Amino acid sequence: MEATGRTVLYVCSVLGILTGVNSEFIHVPTLRHHGIEGKSLLLSVETRFPLDEVEIQGTWSHTRPSGTRTTLVTFTKDATITDMMYRNNLLFREPNVSLLIQKLNQDDEGDYHLSLNIEFHNKTGLVIKEERTVHVTVDVPVSTPVIDKNPSNAVVEDKANVTWTCSVERGTRVVFQWLRDNVALGPSERYYYSQDKSTLLISPVRKEDKGTYCCVASNAVSWGQHSRLVELNVYYGPYNLEVNSDHGLRTGEVFTINPGELVYFECQADSNPPNSYIWISKSRNSTQVINEGPRLEVRSYRLAQAEEYMCRAFNNVTQKQDEAQFTLLVASLGTGKEREKQTAEGSSVSPLAAIIVCCLFVIGSMLLFFLRRSCHPKRVLMSIYNRPLSEQKRPHRSGHMDATEDFGIYEFVSIPGKMESAQASCRSLARLESVQDMHTTIYDVIRHVPETPSHSLLK
Ligand SMILES: *[C@@H]1O[C@H](CO)[C@@H](O)[C@H](O)[C@H]1NC(C)=O
Ligand SMILES: *[C@@H]1O[C@H](CO)[C@@H](O)[C@H](O)[C@H]1NC(C)=O
Ligand SMILES: *[C@@H]1O[C@H](CO)[C@@H](O)[C@H](O)[C@H]1NC(C)=O
Ligand SMILES: *[C@@H]1O[C@H](CO)[C@@H](O)[C@H](O)[C@H]1NC(C)=O
Ligand SMILES: *[C@@H]1O[C@H](CO)[C@@H](O)[C@H](O)[C@H]1NC(C)=O
C-alpha cells in the first residue's frame, strides 16, 4: 500500500511536469562560468525527476573555442565512462549529473554540452531528451597594476603631452580604467587610448588635467585592482586676472577713493606656479613700475585727477602674462570724515579753479579773434607758420612747446585774390613778397598768454 502510494505521488509529479507549461527535467543554474585558473569549477545541474523511476543515459562534451569537440563523459544510471585524457581532471558523480572540473587551465575554456536522455519506468518507450550548453572562460586573476607617467615631472600646459601606462604582472583579458581624483575619466578629444586602455596619451595637456591619477585593472575574475596614486602637475596661467579693493567705490574699471585715504589693491590670477605681480603707474605720462607683489598701497590727495594703474601678472614657467588696467579717481565720496579732510584742502583747490576759469576766458577771446580774422573776405596768412619767413621778420623763434616764449611781434600778411591755400609754401611766399599790393598787419603778443591755450591755438 505504502509503495503504491509513493508511486502515485511520483507519477503525479511526472505527469505534472510532463503537462506543465515550462516543464523541464533538468535545470542549470549558471549558463556562463568565469573560472579561475588552477581552481575547480562545478558545472552544476539540478535534476527534477525521481531518479528511482527513470533510466538515464547521457554525455558531457566539450567544444573548444577553436571548434574541436571532445566527448568527456558518457554515463548511464549505473556506469560512467570518462575519456582517459580527462580522467584525472573530471569528476562525474551520480546521482546528479553535474560535472566537476578539478583544476582549470586555459585549455578548459569553451562550451560544455550536456545531452541527457530520460526514460520513465511506467512509460516504456517514451524517451525525453534534454540538452544544455554551459559556457566556460578561464582567467588568471589580475595583480595590482603599476602606473607610470611620462614625462615624470611637471609639464607646461599646451606645450607637452603626457603618456600614462598601466601594467599588470599577472592577469588575463585585463580591462583598464583611468581615474582622476577618484572620478573615471570621461571621453575627450585630447585623450588617446590604446585598444585595451592600458595606455592613455593626453595631447596636449591642459590645466584641467591636473590632478591625482590612478588606474584600475579588472577582468572576469577580479574586480577593480587599483594602482597607487600619481600626481600630474600642470603649469598654467595666468588666468582670470582681477584687481580688487575693499576700499573705495568701484564702477567697472574705475575706483573712486576719498582724498588722502589709504587704499589697498589686490591683484589675483589663477596660475601654477603662482604668478609674480608688478604694478605699473601710467599717471606721469610715462609708464613706471611702482611696486612688486600682489598688493598695492595707494594714498592720493590730488583731487579730481584720474590716475591709470596696471597690474601685470607673469608666470615664470609658462612665460605667459596678463594685465589688468584700472583708473583711480580721487573724489569726495561724501562720508563725514572725508568731507572734513576735503575742506581742510579747500585752500589748494580754489587757486586751481581760478586758473581754469582764467584759461577758459583767454581761450574764448582768442577763438573769437581768430574766427573774425578767418571770416575776412581776403585770405589771411599767418607768417608765423612759415619758419624761413618768420626768421626774416621775427627776432624770436619758437618750437611752440612752451607758449610763454611766443611773445613778440607777429605779422599777418593779407594777399588779395591770388592765394589758393592759406598754407603756402616758402617758395610761393617768396614770390609773393614782390607783389606790391600786399597788406600787412603787425600784432604784438604780450607775455601773459597762458601755456595751454596758446599751444592749442597755434597747433
Ligand atoms: C551534485 O553532486 C555534487 C557531488 O557530486 C554536489 O557537490 C552538488 O551539490 C550536486 N549538485 C546538485 C545541483 O545537486
Ligand atoms: C504509468 O503511466 C500510465 C500513463 O501513461 C498510468 O496510467 C499508470 O498509472 C502509470 N503507472 C504507475 C504504476 O504509476
Ligand atoms: C604631442 O602630440 C602631438 C600629436 O598628438 C604632436 O604633434 C606633438 O609634437 C607632441 N608634442 C610633444 C611635445 O611631444
Ligand atoms: C622666477 O624665476 C626666477 C629664476 O628663473 C626665480 O628666481 C624666481 O623666484 C621665480 N619667481 C617665481 C615667482 O616663481
Ligand atoms: C608726454 O608725452 C608726450 C607724447 O606722448 C611727449 O611729447 C611729452 O614730452 C611728454 N611729457 C613729459 C613731461 O614727459
Automatic annotation (TrEMBL):
GO CC field: cytoplasm; endomembrane system
Membrane-spanning parts: 352-371
Compartments where found: Cytoplasm; Endomembrane system
Record flagged with keyword Signal: yes
Membrane topology, as annotated: Single-pass type I membrane protein
Listed SUPFAM superfamilies: Immunoglobulin (SSF48726)
Cited Pfam families: Ig_3
Domain Ig-like: 145-231, 238-327
InterPro entries: HEPACAM_domain, Ig-like_dom, Ig-like_dom_sf, Ig-like_fold, Ig_sub, Ig_sub2
Region forming the signal peptide: 1-23
Keyword terms, alphabetized: Cell cycle, Cytoplasm, Disulfide bond, Glycoprotein, Immunoglobulin domain, Membrane, Signal, Transmembrane, Transmembrane helix
Protein name: Ig-like domain-containing protein
Superkingdom in the source lineage: Eukaryota
